[in-house]
Write the structure tokens for this entry.
Amino acid sequence: YAYGFWVSAMSPILGGGKTILTPDVGPERIDYYFKKNPDAIFGSPAVIEMLHSHISEDTSLSNLKIFASGGDRLYPEMAERTIELLKQHGAHATLCNGYGLSEILGLVSTSVGQTYHPGTAGKIPAGVHVMMIDPETGEEVGFNRVGIICASGKHLLTRYYNLPELNKEKFKIV
């Protein structure tokens, strides 16, 4: 998953931090990683669920400052439970949610550094353009309407290599 790798591994390294890659993030390994005293965790709601189910009662998360969720929808109920769990383990962490896709290789929205608002995926950063379209008509839909997210920006994928027919089907020029 290129997006997840970039956000969770490369960004901290480029910012002068350290990254712990977790190729085997099974339930039996949760406490092992927390003993490394992370100050930031990037994980999907599936990782959050594992945290709820398998963290030891005496595990301290007092060093944790941010938990950034992505890769799937973070339901408000899960977010509230997670904020409480983090507090119970001594964390003074901000829970953030963002949106991006491996398919477009980039960030579309983020709430890192912002107040978390349940049910949202943050703000759209400078240089990213987003619109919602009706999947049947291809027309833009208004706020609070169901649609397909379309995003563009200089850092986002613009086409599949050597696949012109798939490009016509999947990419819309606006």
